[in-house]
Design brief:
This protein is α+β, with helices and mostly antiparallel strands. The chain has 15 helices and 17 strands. Helices cover 39% and strands 19% of the residues.
């Protein structure tokens, strides 16, 4: 037994999802990314004396959407609190958040860990999700040894989503983070841009021997990539095990991950909730959410990924893997259904193969989202129709796709016509071709009759080469077998 397997890893994640509103949570300032420092910081955001916060209704709608999507309870009455701490980019000296009564309680997310037949499924329970404002940003570069403060981000609306400490490996944590990342984009409450800080995860990590009480946790802050999350957790787990086995106690702390070294390092000792001296914010009334408001928001929710996956399996006869792949994003699912709509449900499996195969490969190679694909769903549908009616072979179909990807043609028919790629299906013409191939390749004929199956494939290849891939492969195969007597 390895050292690591003698320990149980305990992980809980706290995720800050920046909500897709036009303005901040308590002011009318813009939250657009990339503005010059401090041009989007109003009197409310910088806490000038006498200003009062006003809650952004759209931020609440986003929280309700999330609660409904994860099967949580939407609390009919929640309270905003002041979380007191001092940091240079926190203008008020406190952050407006929620503590004892958050807007969302409970719920959970089904995740899939791993791929293929070895993949496992797990349900991660959520503790809560609460609304809060973001702080500003400290800038340490290009200030000649000094620190600059940009308050554009101060007051940006966040939904902090907290799990139970139920994940037992970095792989499970990453699978959960990816599932959550996909969900918040699916329901339209967060753009998920990790590079811009719209989706940030903190990982609470501890270790214990099986059966023992929970160990002391350390919080890895601001993980903004799934790869870094896995690396950071794996390093932290091994570090804690080493410390304990060498007789040193783990101290509760906030740590940062350094991608250059692959290591975590302590930033400060970790505070407990009472250190923040939470108390209800006297400037904000309790947030009351009536049942009719929840019903209104629910009616506007899109079909959720799990429900759509089940429908794809039932309605289109897709495998669980294909259905899951096609429901990774709403854009992918729409592209697939647009393709099916243009070809008919009988071609659904072929549509899935093209979207998850040829199209996905080209998108991955060019690091392009499906929304920006130069080949549309209608164009792929055109290719599939021509495969179905034997106008082109599968090989030629890929050539048609390449041409459309490069912009050489408006649709499949135009590309096929321009290049003379229409498949030869005339039986007499193909039979004459087969006779020529057999006559010119007597050695392969003798090898096949001697039991070498590869020789048959060589003959098929010669026939297809002679017609530049335009002969119907099945007809070629059938005629060769007939004439070879097998």
């Amino acid at each position: 037994m390895s050292r690591t397997t003698q320990w149980e890893v305990v992980i809980g994640l706290e995720t800050h999802a920046q909500l897709q509103t036009k303005s901040k949570i308590f002011s009318g300032s813009s939250i657009a990314f990339g503005a010059e420092p401090n041009v989007q910081a109003s009197a409310v955001d910088i806490a000038l004396p006498g200003v009062l916060p006003v809650l952004n209704r759209e931020a609440v709608v986003c929280a309700i959407k999330f609660g409904l999507a994860v099967g949580a309870k939407i609390t009919p009455r929640s309270v905003f609190a002041r979380k007191n701490y001092f940091y240079p980019d926190l203008p008020k000296g406190y952050q407006i958040s929620q503590f004892e009564i958050p807007v969302v309680l409970g719920g959970g997310l089904a995740i899939r860990v791993g791929a293929g037949e070895t993949a496992t499924e797990k349900f991660v329970n959520l503790t809560r999700a609460h609304l809060e404002e973001d702080a500003g940003k400290s800038l340490h570069e290009d200030f000649h040894g000094r620190t600059g403060i940009d308050l554009n981000r101060a007051g940006t609306p966040l939904l902090e989503i907290v799990t139970e400490p139920e994940m037992r490996s970095s792989a499970e944590a990453v699978a959960y983070a990816k599932a959550l990342h996909a969900l918040v984009q699916w329901i339209g409450i967060c753009d998920g841009n990790m590079q811009e800080g719209s989706f940030r995860c903190d990982a609470n990590v501890s270790v214990r021997r099986p059966g023992e009480p929970l160990g002391t946790r350390r919080e890895i802050k601001n993980l903004n990539s799934f790869r870094f999350m896995q690396q950071a957790i794996d390093f932290e787990v091994q570090w804690q095990i080493n410390e304990i086995e060498e007789g040193r106690a783990i101290q509760q702390a906030t740590v940062l991950f350094d991608p250059d070294t692959g290591e975590t390092r302590s930033m400060r000792t970790k505070e407990d909730a009472h250190d923040y001296r939470y108390f209800p914010d006297p400037d904000l009334l309790p947030l009351e959410i009536r049942a009719d408001w929840i019903a209104e928001v629910k009616s506007g929710l899109p079909e959720l990924p799990q429900a759509m996956k089940a429908r794809f399996e039932t309605d289109y006869g897709l495998s669980s893997y294909d259905a899951e792949t096609l429901t990774t994003t709403r854009a992918a699912s729409k592209f697939f259904e647009d393709t099916v709509a243009a070809t008919g449900k009988d071609s659904a499996k072929l549509c899935a193969n093209w979207v998850t195969g040829e199209l996905a490969a080209h998108l991955n190679k060019t690091d392009m989202p499906i929304e920006a694909s130069p080949v549309s769903a209608a164009q792929i549908a055109g290719i599939i129709r021509r495969i179905a009616d034997n106008t082109i072979s599968n090989k030629i179909a890929r050539d048609v796709f390449e041409a459309l990807w490069a912009g050489d043609g408006t649709d499949a028919d135009a590309v096929i016509e321009a290049n003379g790629w229409k498949q030869i299906t005339d039986t007499d013409a193909i039979e004459a071709l087969v006779d020529e191939v057999l006559a010119a390749n007597q050695k392969s004929v003798e090898e096949y009759r001697a039991g070498k199956e590869k020789a048959f494939n060589a003959l098929v290849g010669q026939a297809m080469k002679a017609t530049r891939g335009k002969a119907n492969p099945q007809q070629v195969t059938d005629l060769l077998k007939k004439k070879l007597g097998g």
